Amino acid sequence: MPSKSKATIESIQHILARKGFDPGIIDGIWGRRTEAAVKAFQRSKGLVADGIVGPVTWKALFGDAEEQAVADNPAIPWFQEARRLIGVREKVGPGSNPVLIDWADKAGIDYDSDDIPWCGLFVAHCISATLSGESLPGNPLGARAWQRFGAAGPRTLGAVLVFWRGSRDGWLGHVGFYAGEDSSAYHVLGGNQGDAVSVTRIAKARLLDSRWPATAPMTGAGPLVLADGDTFFSTNEA
């Protein structure tokens, strides 16, 4: 899924800096300093200081400049972080990809080997790196634990989707972000899909829950309906 989100975030960082709000390094990555700069700007304008660049904050920053395409929406920074990481893979053979270990260290998660399923770790990283006030579930490595994350939400870009794996009544699961849907499958942007961060199709019948961060306003974008395809269903994401 081609992304202009990096350029969008760079534009936000540039204009924050020009207005005197320090976003840190202008790198197109949504981190804690960028979030803090947005909050400071929002407070200066009497806006709700949630650190999210929704339509009102976008207009305060850019005036009447055209908003970005739905998929590049800066109001879902965790989803943009997920898109940035497409292609990251676990290490084949002995040892682990240090990128994954770094995600765990920064999120305060006990994780020392990418042989351990890491779909929950990926989601935890994307959320914690972009939403500083958001609480993670008690066991973020457990996919089904994400059914207790945030609040119930619609299936729209950036929503956290929780699936059963093996058996609906078992304990195995998978978690990732909603990236669209066709008539029979959700398109899921997640980690540990083919041992990498990727987008895959998962049968709609496997869905357990759709969640939304408690600290981020819902975008109201609704479902993103894509053309039916004949690509395979993912059946085992570990």
UniProtKB/TrEMBL annotation:
<dbReference type="InterPro" id="IPR002477">
    <property type="entry name" value="Peptidoglycan-bd-like"/>
</dbReference>
<dbReference type="Pfam" id="PF01471">
    <property type="entry name" value="PG_binding_1"/>
</dbReference>
<dbReference type="InterPro" id="IPR036366">
    <property type="entry name" value="PGBDSf"/>
</dbReference>
<feature type="domain" description="Peptidoglycan binding-like">
    <location>
        <begin position="8"/>
        <end position="61"/>
    </location>
</feature>
<dbReference type="InterPro" id="IPR036365">
    <property type="entry name" value="PGBD-like_sf"/>
</dbReference>
<protein>
    <recommendedName>
        <fullName>Peptidoglycan binding-like domain-containing protein</fullName>
    </recommendedName>
</protein>
<dbReference type="InterPro" id="IPR013423">
    <property type="entry name" value="CHP02594"/>
</dbReference>
